[in-house]
């Protein structure tokens, strides 16, 4: 299996779907969110089974944080993965 290096800059916000996406090897790692005034509420993060164990959810989260902070939005993690990821980084 060819390992593809993926950067947080590859994360794309899809506001029409209310989710951030990271396309890898023909699949999509994603974080669903709810948009609120001045906030992005992360409700669910999912990595397809075939892509698990490669740290891609962490790459997705970093790209999400970079985008949201760049737009001055507060990030509210409701999803347990997003909560844990942010706590580990003291965000």
Roughly what percent helix?
25-40%
Largest sheet: 5 strands, mixed
Low-confidence parts lasting 5 or more residues at pLDDT below 50?
none
What is the CATH level 1 assignment? Alpha Beta
SSE arrangement, N to C: EEEEHEH
Strand order of the largest sheet: 1-2-3-4-5
Just name the CATH architecture: 3-Layer(aba) Sandwich
- Structural class, by secondary structure, is alpha+beta
The CATH superfamily appears as: Gcn5-related N-acetyltransferase (GNAT)
Give the overall pLDDT as a whole number: 92
Separation of the first and last Cα atoms: 34 Å
State the domain count: 1
Shape: globular
Separate helix tally: 2
Radius of gyration: 12 Å
**Portion in beta strands:** 25-35%
Count of extended strands: 5
CATH topology (level 3) name: Aminopeptidase
Structure explained in plain terms:
Strands 1-2-3-4-5 form a five-stranded mixed β-sheet. It is built from two helices and five strands, in the order ββββαβα. By secondary structure, it is of the alpha+beta class. The mean pLDDT is 92. Helix content is 26%, strand content 34%. The chain is globular. It has helices at residues 56-70, 80-88, and strands spanning 12-14, 19-24, 27-36, 39-46, 74-77.
Quick structural overview:
The protein has 91 residues and is an alpha+beta fold. The protein is 26% helix and 34% strand.
